[in-house]
Amino acid sequence: MKSSPTEFERRCYALLRQIPEGRVTTYKAIAEALGTKAYRAVGRAMGANPDPVIVPCHRVVASDGTLGGYALGLERKIALLESEGLRIGQGRVEDFKTVFWSAFSV
Length: 106
Known about the structure:
Elements: H1 7-16, E1 25-26, H2 27-33, H3 39-47, E2 60-61, H4 74-83, E3 88-89, E4 92-93, H5 96-99
Parallel strand pairs: 1-2
Antiparallel strand pairs: 3-4
């Protein structure tokens, strides 16, 4: 079991905390905000998130709006996103371009 997040993971989580309720971002947008193309590393950081509700990794989706995975299960991710007012249909965020967030302060 991992004892503490890596520096990269901490930086990812700091960005996640900036995403407003009812908005989503992408693995790619987080990586770009960190100055890297390590999109998969961002995905691994989301999977290692020690506090997935406080650090809202459920708000991270693929670049085409598909949901991707979630440590607490896809049904829980959908429920959290819908509770924030997002609409999910056929495994993706509806109106993705409208709810996409990329205004990170690094």
